[in-house]
Amino acid sequence: MEELVERIKEDGRVLGEGVLKVDSFVTHQVDPELMEAIGHRFAEVFADAGITKVVTIEASGIAPALFAAKKLAVPMIFARKAKSLTMDEELLTSSVYSFTKQVTSQISISRKFLSSDDKVLIIDDFLANGQAAKGLVELCQQAGAQVDGIGIVIEKSFQDGRDLLEKMGLRVISLARIASLKNGEVEFLEGDA
Ligand code: 5GP
Asked: Could you tell me which residue ranges the Phosphoribosyltransferase domain spans (predicted)?
């Protein structure tokens, strides 16, 4: 997605150890126009898939997932990282090792929001080693829901995430694909959409 790639070139900042900082338009301050365009692109790609729910993980997946869900006219569910006192129903849960925070946390979705009737599009802001996406797939599997695909805003293709998800038989659509972050430079591959 050209618009996204240009924005990463302009405003993305490479931190040490293979991390890209995009806090001025994705992960902290959010650009609604860009997020809407991203959400619509995902919705276009999955328009004929019969998606019934869009699933993401808090916090930075929520913006693109919400715009995709609105366009597909389905609900958006975000997995929670901390258990809230108000989550008193039965939960779907899985453990996710966070690439950026380097801790393992439990993620959860109330069982009542996903069922075996659902066809799910999973969306997240970044794909690194695939642990967040895998955790979301596991939540869907626990509910018996079918995962139709994974939409990623920024994929770091030099890490193992895509490989892991494709080996699980999942379709991965990444709007920006990064080949390398070496020497403080962002090098891109051709994106999927
Ligand atoms: P994974 O689970 O695929 O290893 O990592 C994906 C998660 O880690 C994303 O949800 C995102 O929050 C975070 N993440 C991974 N790599 C980066 C990065 O380079 N920059 C930022 N801002 N977040 C990242």
From this structure: 33-156
Topology of the domain comprising 35-178: Rossmann fold (3.40.50)
List residues near ligand 1 (CB under 6 A): 19-22, 27, 60, 98-100, 124-132, 156, 161
Handedness of CA 170, 173, 31, 37 (dihedral sign): negative
- Residue pair 56/123 in contact (Cβ under 8 Å)? The answer is yes
Structure-block tokens of residue 46: 């999955």
Q: Evaluate if residue 59 carries a pLDDT over 90.
A: yes
Give tens-digit pLDDT for 1-57. Answer: 999 999 999 999 999 879 999 999 999 999 999 999 999 999 999 999 999 999 999
| CA atoms within 13 A of residue 77's CA, in its CB half-sphere | 23
Q: Is 0.90 exceeded by the ipTM?
A: yes
Where in the chain are the domains?
A: 35-178
How far is the centre of ligand 1, averaged over its atoms, from the C-alpha of 153 (Å)?
11
**Ligand 1 centroid to residue 63 C-alpha, Å:** 15
Q: Convert the pLDDT of each residue in 169-183 to its tens digit.
A: 999 999 999 999 999
